[in-house]
Amino acid sequence: MPESDPPEWAAVWEPLVSTFDASAGPSLPAAECLALLGGGNSGVVVLSVEALPMVVPVRYRTGTEGIHLTLPAGLPVAAALDQQIVGLQASGDDGAGGRWTVMAIGRSAAHPAAPPTGFVLTPTLVHGYRFEL
Fold first, then answer.
1. Domain 8-128: what homologous superfamily?
2. Can you spell out the DSSP letters for 6-72?
């Protein structure tokens, strides 16, 4: 994926912090992280259920309210996402042999138009970097 300007919806969440672990490599700017998320559609959500970590596959899309998450139907953890701090992790291929990964962390809320598996994540922290395998 070529470098591009952040999508219009990114301005809704400014300012975002884009660095929380410098040891992982050079961090990407928040705007670039959001642009990369805007080009993807699947990832995992990391959350805590009864004080234990859980990773759940999700489909996502970006929107003006935040990042819309859709969980697989029938997962008993769906209720655990409402009004919780969660992380969305997504990775992809940049088309030139490199890879990227981005994590968006923020509060998740049930989406009233998409119960019971639809949620909106409002990110307050994003972090990402590029790497090669």
1. Electron Transport, Fmn-binding Protein; Chain A (2.30.110.10)
2. PPGGGGGG-S-B--S-GGGSSPPPHHHHHHHHHT--EEEEEEEETTEEEEEEEEEEEETTEEEEEPP
